[in-house]
Amino acid sequence: MSDAAVRSRGFFGEPSALGYLSFTETWERFSYYGMVALLTLYMSQQLLLPGHAEHVAGLAGFRAALESVFGRMSTLGFASQIFGLYTGFVYFTPVFGGMIADRFIGRRNAVMLGAALMSAGHLAMAFETSFLLALLLLITGCGLLKGNISAQVGTLYGDSDIAGRTRGYSIYSMGINVGATAGPLACGFLAATWGWHYGFGLAGILMLIGLATYAAGYRHLAEEPPRAVRAAAPPLDAAQLRVVAALIAMMALTVFQSIAYYQNGNVGLVWIDSHVDLGFFGWTVPVAWFNSIDPLVSILAVPPLVVLWRRQAARGREPNEIGKIAIGAFMAAGANLLLVVGGLAFDRVPVLFPVFYDVILGVAFLYYWPTLLALVSRAAPLSLKSTLMGTAFLSLFVSNITLGWLGGYYEQMSPEAFWALNAAIAAAGGILAFVAQRPLGKIFESA
């Protein structure tokens, strides 16, 4: 796409197609985070208990298979393992979704098919019998949608427009976080007021709105023909191979802080339900609402962070992409240490501790995840952009599988030791990113 074409602005000074992509992700993340905020609590407090578990098609065999690998699990341990596997595979399948789009059906068709499958999956969550089928549909649909729609943001900007590309991904991430903020609030309210399945049903309706939004913008999105019908790309040269290796290394370094970050939607909610004073003027705050705090902060913190980074850049002191990722890791470590302090200081932890925990995580997210996506979009070789964008989400697969497994140890440790462990994991990622800043930075500078 020419620089002249991409300079056609219609959405907050950015390409008009960015609006359709951002709003599609807003509705998709609204449904996803609304459902995820309920998932562990729903499983541990209802679905996996006697009288309900028997109704879930295939659950007994699924549990037997997991216990053959991980050993016997408590109800909470089983719920945490399912949470980790689901949220992990949601970020594993985009690798294959990117390959399918690159080679066969194109990005637009992949996103449309993915959104349709996710809509069916969310609606299936409203029924106990189809619980495992629902997770399978959601995992498959997200694989087709997630990496491909993220890659489409990068195609709206010319290769030389690095600042515009970063701006575009920041706006796109803001749309994600609007949905991630509203989802737990709306779905959590319905679940607390009328029952779990009303919350899950709302998630399905919202995903259908996301599908309609993308369909409305379909013609505005440019599309390259899939690789199977265009000339074969030339093989990568040595410099490009070094860039690919460096990108994969950078993705691996973000795994550490993602473990500490995404635990807030799993054991974090269980800990809040058991150890935090949720009373507020005679009203009990729904636990799922805490999952709206960090994405809300990730929206509100964008303008001041942009101002900060511009001032740092004017003085030649703005951290490079790897430096920002390291800062995000150290912030995630600090957030988890805050829960350690709260647990040690109080029998019933004041509500401000988990609030500030999520606030810090929201800022940490802005330092590391949009930065990683922008880096991949900028530096990846053209023939591998969708595949490597999907590979970036593979880091979240590893993170979520690991945090689900770690969650099984929560009942065997003190809460303070558990959160200290998560803080140490995030800090290790920050140290590794800091050490790698110079050698990897040189490779990316030449990309």
Descriptive overview:
This protein is mostly helical. It is 75% helix and 2% strand. It has one domain (10-223, 237-445): Growth Hormone, Chain: A. The chain has helices at 3-6, 16-47, 59-70, 75-90, 94-105, 107-124, 131-154, 162-194, 196-217, 238-262, 267-275, 293-300, 302-314, 321-345, 352-379, 385-407, 415-445; strands at residues 9-11, 14-15, 279-280, 283-284. A two-stranded antiparallel ribbon has the order 1-2. A two-stranded antiparallel ribbon has the order 3-4. Helix 14 packs antiparallel against helix 15. Residues 1-8 have low confidence and may be disordered.
The CATH class designation is: Mainly Alpha
Structural class: mainly alpha
Would you tell me which CATH topology applies? Growth Hormone, Chain: A
The CATH architecture name reads Up-down Bundle
Q: Write down the overall geometry.
A: globular
CATH superfamily: MFS general substrate transporter like domains
Domain unit count: 1
Query: How does the major sheet shape up?
Result: 2 strands, antiparallel
Strand content: under 5%
Compute the number of helices: 17
Q: Can you tell me the residue ranges where pLDDT is under 50 for at least 5 consecutive residues?
A: 1-8
Mean pLDDT: 87
- The proportion of residues forming helix, as a percent range, comes to over 70%
Order of helices and strands: HEEHHHHHHHHHHEEHHHHHH
How many beta strands in the DSSP annotation? 4
